[in-house]
Automatic annotation (TrEMBL):
Species lineage: Eukaryota, Viridiplantae, Streptophyta, Embryophyta, Tracheophyta
Entry keyword Aminoacyl-tRNA synthetase: no
Main location: secreted
Protein name: S-protein homolog
Domain of life: Eukaryota
UniProt keyword annotations, A-Z: Secreted, Self-incompatibility, Signal
GO biological process terms, semicolon-separated: rejection of self pollen
Signal peptide residue numbers: 1-22
Length: 134
């Protein structure tokens, strides 16, 4: 049987350990990005149909008009996948890739007739993918 003071010490150690774990978890969550998929197609284009999900979470499917922003918060450190249809074109891409997007507050996707452009600041864009046809 342990003396009472040692029991007390053990209890305190256990409590601080769980609170440290808890704060790490919180830290992780804070660094999960907000995702934006922006329809930047030419004026009066047909709507852009986009569906996004991770392995565990269904985000949703939207018909985006020109200028619309389909946005959500990533809730897990996982791959988020989207696919898009626009007239006779099809595309799929990784909306969030944990390694690539690590530590970013936001991931922006600009979708237009030329393809799919990635930005972390909504200003500088890099072309990542193009439309496919059957
Ligand atoms: C991204 O930039 C566009 C164009 O400047 C602006 O209209 C839009 O509000 C911005 N979105 C965010 C989430 O900052």
């Amino acid at each position: 049987m342990l003396p009472q003071s040692q029991l007390f010490f053990l209890l305190i150690a256990l409590l601080s350990f769980t609170s440290i774990l808890g704060s790490f978890e919180g830290l992780d969550k804070k660094f999960l990005p907000r995702v934006h998929v922006l329809n930047d197609l030419p004026p009066n284009s047909e709507p852009l149909n986009v569906l996004c999900k991770s392995r565990n979470t269904y985000i949703g499917e939207r018909d985006l008009n020109v200028g619309d922003d389909f946005t959500w918060n990533a809730k897990e450190n996982a791959l988020y996948y989207c696919r898009a249809f626009w007239v006779r074109f099809f595309a799929s891409w990784h909306a969030v890739q944990p390694k690539r997007d690590n530590g970013k507050a936001a991931v922006f996707w600009l979708v237009n007739e030329h393809g799919f452009f990635l930005s972390w600041d909504n200003t500088t864009w890099v072309k990542k993918s193009v439309w496919e046809t059957e």
